Structure formats: structure tokens, C-alpha cells
Amino acid sequence: MNIKLTGFDTLISKLGRIIDIDKDIVNNVADKCVEIANSEYVTIKPNIGKENISENVSRVFSEASGLSFEEYGTGTRGQQTEHPNLPQSGVPITGNWQYNYPSNFKKLNKQGGIYWTYKKEDGTFVSSIGQKSGQQMYNTSIKIQKEIPTIVQNILKRKLEDVWFHTIYNRIS
To answer: What is the largest CA-CA distance in the chain?
Structure first.
């Protein structure tokens, strides 16, 4: 008995156009992450980019001096706006992220609040109770999770339209 699957070879070649969809999704998601992260930073403009780790894995990064302080905040002000995903290891001096770690530079005011004084680039001295947590990359991760279904849908639509177009085109020609 002979079995012939009409159009099977054509179907396999059409599916080949869809195979790279995972790469397209990863690249598009990473590109959107970079776009979102760039819009999140207000006070500083770090170098934000993506790195392709493998065909199906990309890493989005941000690089700038003091970027951890922007993300997580410092001192009393940072503690009041605590970051939901603080580092638990790898932080110099303290190991984990601490808003008011012991330091000779810190002082107590009359109300018992912690502050410190530092010298700005222009040579003036200022007092600070810290800076609030900006949560730029954290916010980027939340926003991209909401964008992923639309990104996947658009890529699938584009790929399927491409397969459909080539099917119709091949029938006509």
C-alpha cells in the first residue's frame, strides 16, 4: 500500500519559516525592555543595552556610576520607599542592601533621625537623609511582563501572514 501525504513537503517548508519565532520573541522583548528602561530613568541616563547570551537568551543591562543607589535608594528616604526586591548578597561592606548601615559619616539630629553631610562637585557641603528608591529596572520588569503577550501576538501574526502570503503566491505563480 502506498501512502501519499499531499502537500506535506510544502507544509514542512512553511513551518521552517516559523521555527525562528523564539529568537524573534527574545529579541523583540529585549528591545522593548531597553526602550522601557530608557524611559524609566529621569535623574541620570545610564548606558542601557542588550546582550545576546545565546540564540534564545538575551540580557538587558544598565550601567552608570551610582546606579544601585538610584535603583534601591539610600538612607531614611530610601527606607521609606523600600525596593520590593533588595539584594540579599553581593553588596560591598554589608553583604546585603542596608539603608542605614553604620558609618562614621552619619549623625543623629535632635529628633533622632539619621543624616550625613557630603561635599558636592562644586565644593559646597550639603546634608542628606538619603534618596528614595527609583526602582527603574524593577518597574521595567513589571511593565515588560504586561507587554509580552502583545509582542508574541504581533510576531505570530506576522509569521503566519508570511506563511499565508507565500502559500497564495506559490499557488498563483
So the answer is: 96
